Amino acid sequence: MTAEGNDKSSEEPGFTFSDKRRVDPNTGEVRPEADAQSASAGADSASTADPNAEQAADASDLGVDIPADASGLEDVEPEAEPEPGSDAAGYLADLKRINAEYAAYRMRADRERERAALGGTIKAVEALIPVLDEVKLARDNGDVSGPFETHVNKLVESLNKLGVEQYGEVGDEFDPNIHEALMQQPSDEVENPTLFLVMQPGYRIGERIIRAARVGVQQPED
Asked: Superkingdom of this entry's organism (predicted)?
């Protein structure tokens, strides 16, 4: 039993010790390995302190001179206009022409976009005009009240947000550009042609007439 125990203990790995002291305790001198480690640590700290050191070294290897003071680089004046007739002058002229064409294209595209949006709004209002005429008749007869009146007001507000304006009131001066006279009668009470009846109001967006107001006109007597 004792022999077997001794054999097992001899097979187990023994304890090893690595002396990493920088100074040799026997001679009192600094070990060469410690000097190498110190030099490596110093190089690492130097590169960490100056992150541009490696880039500067690479630039020096490529033959590029980096000035110590680069503050004067901001005061560099732009190059003068290229000489007329040179390739650079031709390229500059082409660039200016392309910029002008692009600016004109953007303006044209914006106008087309606005025109398309206006056309869509006009089509929507034209489809709603019969409904608006019925609403006007209901209001004239006093039939717009309660929840129905709330919906009518919301419809009118939505049209106003789109820039749609309803026009044509009794007493307005007649304008053949925006009014359609369906009835005329003489009157000694007016000095200019005046609306005395609005059969159907007109609708417009800005200066664009969607439908002229259909009216009755009083003409001054001769």
From this structure: Bacteria
